[in-house]
Design brief:
single chain, about 1200 residues, alpha+beta, Rossmann fold, 10-stranded mixed beta sheet, 9-stranded mixed beta sheet, 39 strands, about 15% strand, disordered N terminus
């Protein structure tokens, strides 16, 4: 379970209230001292500034470790002691094994968990109660096992389905547990299965391998024990992150050296915080602090590093990854919850019928002369009253359809299989198909109101490409569109874009050639990228960057002729125009979210000192020199064009620095770097002093590549009435930029940006904006009034209406993680939610995994009748995936945690379109008809028993034989019709559902299945059952019962089976009127069921009496099938009963058509779609407004770590040979 409520002030202090339930993923900002430099775990070392970096890190880690030991009001928390190279001592602690299980059941828990889940359904509970009272004496008018046997079959079928689905999970677990890793044994590394790995083992992980447990990094093939890891399994990000071992163990580079290590690790206890770790490594008398930079998490993968040595600290279900993989919650769909409610209604109707018939029996027993004077029932008539109620409950028990639950489960299982085998949702590149991991939720896909999506890896690929450049006022592009090619305007000026090939020519011959060379040099030099030689292809250089933006710019420089190939601790070497040029790196002013820029001071090969700088246009343009900048206007125009395309932009500038100015500034910088308090602020002030009087070179544009089809998918889902919220750990500028490029935000959208620093500022801002929006509405907010029925069901007062119609310009709410902390507090959360529900889109930036889950739960609990869907691809998305009604994981990469914890897994976000609009829309419509039809057929049959009870003096006599009629009704004769409807029916085709996404609203508003529709079918059941019974009663009474061919009087069993056969034809006709599409199985199910009865029943009527199972049927064949009256009634009575239904269906479609009726006719007659296209008109109308908004906020291409890179690049020398280990 997720933590329901939490004191957010405690959370900011790093504390959790006593007794709070563990959360799915810990808040990464819960440890400010540890995560200030990297709050979202994007990798990179902590903020080690030159001078006192190591000492500062040590002091911080020791302080945090001591605070861990002292938590809990001064009580010492037990730490985990792990001995190096001492398996005997480690085994005494009996640490958990490394085998994992993500399955729902095991041999011990299957029966209790399965039965608890099954009997949480009221129908199964009712039939268990009925089956028990059937065993009491002579209460039952039917067989004692007439209910328990079918119930057992239903439970068995459900159990088989659960076992099949859970076996897949067990098989996946077995594959993971059987992987091999090299473990130290003596002085050599030997293969060992993952499940056999123990705490304290020292392992060797090689390039491309996954970490089998949580490890502490000792050493690696890289300098200073650095290594690169990919955490896409954890957070969905494919950019590599850097981890660094301790200096004290960095020189342990051989198996023999590792085997000589002796000491111990004092570690924190296992917990679920992915982004924190505290511990101490003791070697001899020396204690060295451990922090998250040494932690390698299970599920991450070693990349571009030949090997690492590491020691196991947490195994199996104690690893941080598995601590986040909470048990899958039991989810109930909106339709299932309504079924449960309606089963209560049916039970009350059944109870009313039982009481009515019992009162009738009591009146008869008290007043009938025969029973009063001869049978003397008067004395015990009152005592028999309760028994009569139970008898009638048994008699009418099938009013609640026993087969409904198992039919629903079977149909859902097949619908899940259709999702699994849909080739339209198969991703060929990754060889991944869609997977319905939990088929129980298929119809919920057709009723989704809110989608909560991660950004990185879900909407975007996290792959950056260098697309465009503006240099000296001239625009260049990798690929130039036809409408952007160079042309001469009416003023005689060249306008448009050159391509990159022409740029290379311009670098030699154009008037801007010196500026172009400066531009290329800046891109190749001003960065913190580390070049790695590809071992398989030495001519290939792999760039290791803290962000994909950085790597894209360096690759862009290479494309333009500036090849960066060597980094040394104090210099970088590039190849420009065939010459190797070495630039001495003097100082690095790092990027952070306040500065929005980074700069590098270098000494050129000519001995000059230059400042190279790149950053957001807002901060670069205001620092330009007053003279010498003749390209500002043209560059700004290009920036607006790039932003219109959804590209991420940077401005590029430089400045020449004199030796005297640099010497003076270097002293200021050195003093700032050695400051103890507020070091980062002092460094920022020092950078501000040198980053002035800049000369603008131009701008770059990078495309953050979206997943294929994302913009169209989001636009289509928005047309379907689904509101999309993006919950991302990215910065605000990046998230807004992606919002525009993926069509979540459009030209008409007004942004409400909420970045407040205190509780009261947040409250004031949200309340002010809400009042302004309400004023624009001119009506009340979408608050739903709480009725007496809601209060009876225990619903809270504050409920918001998801279907409220608001006539308002499109709004989008943008809120950052810190402000969201305040917005989720009790006194603000409803204001925040009310404002958010009025917006077309919501973007939450820099949010933690816990915040993602809390936002989903806020909407789920407080927006009335809403259905939420969460989609993500990393372990940080598991919380919201499990908190939502439907969880979808993006798969396609091995072992993705989100996909394994989700209800459905798809390879690409674009597949969500078909999954919801088509599979979801069909599943909802099919399940609605299946449920209503199942109710209808059962109520129609068993209400006949009520009409018969009135005629038989409420004696409790049944009209139908038990085994051939009552027990076999839902198993044999009336089982195929609902299955055919549930699997094959299509109210419109897939093409129509995709063309008209507005029809998805039918599911959102529960048009096909709601209480009104349920009661209309219920009334129809009463009507049909009365028609069938009383038409036959009229025939029998009019002839005095002499309806046999030879004039004999028919007995009640003969009449009962004639009524029963007629009922089968009536429900067959009703099924024919219900289905929208006829396939072969539909014909077999509807027509074949009646024919099957007419063939098999006569055979059973012969065999049943012989084996003394059904003696009532002796001689019935001649009475029924040899009787012309029976065949005439079988032909005419069903038509008479269904004539009203046919007439109403005709009138409704002709005079009161619904939207889907019209679409059905469009489909039937292939009518062309003449809807006007307004896209170009809207673009023209809102062009000015768009440009004004783009000037206010433009995404810039920085998503790297905010600090720590300067110290890292000083440690690297790519010319050194790496150890082989």
């Amino acid at each position: 379970m997720m933590m329901e409520e939490i004191d957010l002030h405690d959370r900011q202090r790093g504390g959790v209230p006593q007794g709070a339930t563990s959360v799915t993923i810990s808040d990464p900002e819960a440890k400010p001292s540890k995560m200030a430099s990297d709050p979202m775990g994007t990798g990179g070392p902590p903020a080690d500034d030159e001078g006192n970096g190591t000492l500062s890190r040590a002091a911080t880690a020791i302080g945090n470790f001591m605070s861990t030991l002292e938590r809990g009001g001064g009580q010492k928390e037990e730490e985990r002691i792990i001995y190096l190279n001492d398996p005997i001592k480690n085994s005494q602690s009996k640490y958990l094994h490394n085998s994992i299980s993500t399955a729902k059941y095991n041999l011990v828990t299957f029966l209790p968990k399965f039965l608890a889940e099954q009997f949480s359904r009221y129908a199964n509970l009712f039939f268990l109660f009925t089956g028990i009272i059937q065993q009491i004496g002579d209460l039952s008018p039917t067989s004692k096992f007439g209910t328990l046997v079918p119930l057992g079959i239903v439970l068995f079928a459900s159990g088989v389905k659960e076992v099949v689905e859970d076996t897949k999970r067990h098989r996946q677990d077995a594959e993971v547990n059987a992987r091999f890793v090299k473990c130290l044994k003596g002085s050599e590394f030997v293969p060992k299965r993952w499940r056999e790995v123990q705490v304290g083992d020292i392992v060797r992980i090689e390039n491309g391998e996954f970490f089998p447990a949580d490890l502490i990094l000792l050493s690696s093939s890289e300098p200073d024990a650095l290594c690169y890891i990919e955490t896409s399994n954890l957070d969905g990000e494919t950019n590599l992150k850097i981890r660094q071992g301790l200096t004290e163990t960095a020189d342990v580079l051989t198996p023999e050296a590792v085997a000589r290590l002796h000491g111990l690790i004092k570690s924190e206890q296992p917990n679920n915080s992915l982004y924190t770790y505290e511990g101490l490594l003791r070697l001899g008398n020396k204690s060295i602090p451990l922090d998250p930079q040494q932690l390698l998490l299970r599920g991450a993968q070693l990349r571009n590093t030949r090997w690492v040595y590491a020691i196991v600290v947490f195994t199996g279900h104690e690893t941080k990854l598995m601590r986040n993989a909470t048990a899958a919650p039991i989810k109930r769909t909106k339709v299932e919850r309504m079924v449960n409610t309606q089963i209560i209604f049916l039970f009350l109707i059944l109870l009313a019928m039982a009481v009515f018939c019992s009162i009738g029996a009591l009146v008869r027993q008290l007043n009938n002369p025969f029973e009063k004077t001869l049978l003397l029932y008067t004395s015990n008539a009152w005592a028999m009253f309760p028994q009569n109620i139970l008898t009638y409950i048994i008699l009418f028990n099938n009013l609640i359809p026993l087969s409904l639950i198992v039919t629903m489960e079977a149909v859902k299982f097949v619908l899940g299989g259709l999702i699994n085998t849909d080739l339209d949702m198969y991703h060929e590149e990754s060889d991944t198909h869609a997977v319905a991991r939990t088929s129980s939720l298929v119809e919920e896909l057709g009723q989704v109101d809110y989608i909560f999506s991660d950004k990185t890896g879900t909407l975007t690929r996290n792959i950056m490409e260098f697309k465009m450049a503006s240099i000296g006022g001239v625009a260049y592009a990798d690929v130039v569109p036809e409408d952007k090619k160079i042309r001469v305007d009416e003023k005689g000026h060249e306008v448009g874009y050159y391509d990159f090939k022409q740029l290379l020519e311009h670098k030699k011959t154009h008037a801007n050639a010196p500026l172009i060379r400066e531009f290329v040099t800046l891109l190749a030099v001003c960065h913190t990228v580390i070049p790695e030689v590809d071992e398989e292809d030495p001519s290939n250089i792999i760039y290791q960057a803290s962000s994909p933006d950085e790597a894209a710019l360096v690759k862009g420089a290479q494309q333009l002729g500036g090849f960066f190939h060597t980094r040394r601790p104090k210099s970088v070497t590039i190849k420009l125009d065939g010459r190797d040029l070495e630039y001495e790196v003097l100082n690095v002013n790092e990027f952070n979210s306040t500065r929005k820029r980074m700069s590098l001071l270098v000494r050129t090969p000519e001995g000059k000192i230059k400042l190279y700088i790149k950053g957001a246009d807002t901060v670069i343009l205001e620092r330009l020199a007053k003279e010498g900048n003749g390209y500002v206007e043209q560059t700004c125009g290009h920036l607006e064009e790039y932003a219109t395309e959804g590209l991420r932009t940077l401005c590029i500038a430089y400045r020449d620095i004199s030796n005297e100015e640099y010497a003076k500034w270097a002293g200021i910088y050195e003093k700032a770097a050695t400051t103890i308090n507020n070091r980062q602020d002092e460094l920022d002030k020092a950078a501000e002093m040198i980053e002035k009087d800049l000369i603008l070179i131009g701008a770059t544009a990078i495309e953050d590549k979206l997943q294929d089809g994302v913009p169209d998918t989001i636009a289509t889902l928005a047309l379907a009435g689904i509101k999309i919220w993006v919950l991302t750990g990215d910065r605000q500028e990046t998230a807004i930029n992606i919002g525009y490029s993926c069509k979540l935000l459009n030209l008409e959208t007004s942004l409400i940006v909420c970045n407040e620093s205190t509780h009261f500022e947040t409250k004031e801002f949200l309340e002010k904006k809400l009042l302004a929006v309400k004023a624009g509405l001119g009506m009340g907010a979408p608050m739903r009034r709480t009725t007496w029925f809601d209060r009876l069901l225990g619903k809270k007062e504050r409920r918001f209406d998801k279907d409220a119609e608001v006539d308002l310009e499109p709004l989008a709410l943008i809120i950052d993680g810190r402000t969201l902390d305040f917005a989720l507090e009790d006194d603000i959360k409803f204001t925040f939610l009310e404002l958010a529900t009025l917006c077309k889109a919501v973007v939450c930036c820099r949010v933690s995994p816990l915040q993602k889950a809390l936002v989903v739960k806020l909407v789920r609990k407080n927006v009335d009748e809403s259905v939420t869907l969460a989609i993500g691809d990393g372990a940080n998305d598991v919380g919201m995936i499990q908190a939502a009604h439907v969880g979808i994981g993006i798969s396609g990469q091995e072992g993705l945690q989100a996909a394994r914890s989700a209800d459905f897994a798809i390879a690409q976000f674009r597949f969500l379109r078909k999954l919801l609009l088509i599979h979801g829309g069909w599943a909802y419509a099919r399940m609605s008809k299946l449920i209503l039809y199942s109710y209808y057929k059962n109520i129609t049959l068993y209400l006949i028993q009520l009409w018969f009870a009135i005629d038989n003096g409420f004696s409790g006599q049944t009209l139908f034989e038990t085994w051939s009629s009552v027990s076999s009704y839902n198993v044999l004769w009336a089982v195929a019709q609902p299955i055919a409807i549930g699997i094959f029916d299509q109210y419109v085709s897939a093409r129509m559902l995709d063309r008209y996404p507005q029809m998805y609203n039918l599911g959102q508003r529960s048009i096909f299945y709601n209480h009104k529709v349920f009661f209309s079918w219920l009334v129809n059941s009463f009507y049909h059952s009365a028609m069938v019974y009383y038409l036959w009663r009229a025939v029998v009474w009019s002839s005095g019962g002499a309806i046999m061919g030879d004039g004999r009087v028919a007995d009640n069993w003969s009449i009962g089976e004639m009524v029963y056969a007629t009922d089968l034809v009536v429900i067959g006709w009703k099924a024919a009127l219900t289905v929208d599409i006829w396939v072969k199985f539909t014909w077999v199910a509807i027509v074949g069921s009646v024919l099957l009865f007419l063939v098999l029943f006569p055979i059973y009527a012969i065999i049943g009496p012989l084996i003394k199972l059904s003696p009532e049927l002796f001689g019935i064949n001649q009475a029924m099938f040899g009787n012309a009256v029976f065949w005439l009634g079988l032909l005419l009575f069903p038509i008479a009963a269904n004539l009203r239904d046919f007439t109403w269906k005709y009138a409704k479609r002709t005079y009161f058509p619904k939207s889907y009726h019209i679409i059905q006719e469009v489909q039937k007659y292939n009518i062309p779609d003449y809807r006007p296209r307004m896209e170009w008109f809207r673009k023209a109308v809102h062009k000015v407004r768009m440009i004004q908004r783009l000037k206010r906020q433009r995404g810039f291409a920085f998503s790297q770590n905010e600090s720590g890179q300067a110290g890292l690049i000083r440690a690297y020398d790519t010319t050194r040979r790496k150890p082989r280990g």
